[in-house]
Amino acid sequence: MKKILCVVALSAAFCVNLFAKDYEVKMLDVNAEGTMVFEPGFLKIEPGDSVTFIPTHKTHWAKSVVIPAGASKFEGKLDEKFTTKFDVEGVYIYECPPHKIMNMIGIIQVGKPTNLDKVNAAVPKLEKRASENKGRLENYAKQIVK
After folding, report:
1. pTM summary value
2. What domains are there in the chain, each with its CATH number?
3. In this structure, which of 15, 43, 97, 121 has its CB flanked by the most CB atoms within 10 Å?
4. Quick one: which of 91, 99, 85, 100 has its CA closest to 44?
5. Strands annotated E in 7-133
6. What pairing do the DSSP bridges indicate for beta strands 50-55 and 82-85?
7. Which strands sit side by side in the sheet containing 50-55, from one edge to the other?
8. DSSP string over 76-106
9. Bridging pattern class, strands 50-55 and 22-31
10. Is 58 exposed, middle or buried (0-12, 13-18, 19+ CB in 10 A)?
11. Confidence of residue 5 (pLDDT cuts 50, 70, 90)
12. What pLDDT shows up at residue 19?
């Protein structure tokens, strides 16, 4: 019986990784939405999926600001493409540190929004510090699927 359970567990883990997807988020100086923006700014993925952050213009990187309990923080390096895997369900808010005052910020929802209270408390504080592109994060937060 233990062997069967072990085989089932390993098979399930393999299948999750087999169907995992990799999404791309571009770090841009400008697009149709405005200046200093991630594209897409809101992304809904599933546990086990990865996101590759691509600096299409210079002076950008992505750093997590709000993460669900049990998740690991992430941070890329200046002008470097990097990929991070999301295994913990919840909502992740991330920013471009040198452009946070310009509200260069994004949201990734992984599965269910397990930390919605934490996100709802953080959004007004993060929006308040922005000198440009006000309302961007609030608009992304409205896209969270409950």
Report:
1. 0.88
2. 20-141 (2.60.40.420)
3. 43
4. 91
5. 22-31, 34-39, 42-45, 50-55, 63-66, 82-85, 90-95, 105-110
6. antiparallel
7. 34-39, 22-31, 50-55, 82-85
8. --TT--EEEE--S-EEEEEE-GGGGGGT-EE
9. parallel
10. exposed
11. very low
12. 83
Sheet with 42-45: strands ordered across: 42-45, 105-110, 90-95, 63-66
Category of 116 on φ-ψ map: left (φ > 0), alpha (ψ -120 to 50) or beta:
alpha
Q: How far is CA 14 from the centre of its chain?
A: 24
Written as one letter, the residue type at 126 is: L
Q: Of 146, 126, 145, 111, which Cα lies nearest the Cα of 137? A: 126
The structure tokens listed for 73 are 């923080």
